[in-house]
Amino acid sequence: MQHRMILVATLCAVLATPAFANPHVDRIVSQLKAEGYNSFEMERTWLGRIRIEAEKGDIDREIVINRSTGEVLRDYLVEEGGLFSDGEDEDDDEDKKEEEDEDEEDDGDDDDGEDEEDDDDSD
């Protein structure tokens, strides 16, 4: 029981640092929680700003704010599996089928009368 009290007291002391007791941080974190974000990490940058990192499913969000004014200096959002992801698109197979169908339709029309011109030249 005593170990648990020491652990709780240490945790409270660490979380009660001035960077995290900022009302601007509390406001932003509560907004992020309302939007469904979880797993928050907060730290102070070398320039004295506060960086808040949050996750929601496949979305990672990083917000940097001015410690004294609360101004949002950067709000960066990254979605895993985005445009340049390593994974395959769900509709890749459909795209391939459409391309194959178009190729099959065009096979009969590829000549465009070129054979007729060649026959005329040989006369």
TrEMBL record:
Keyword Signal: yes
Disordered: annotated span: 79-123
Biased composition (Acidic residues): 86-123
Signal sequence region: 1-21
Key words of the record: Signal
Protein name as annotated: PepSY domain-containing protein
Species annotation: Cognatishimia activa
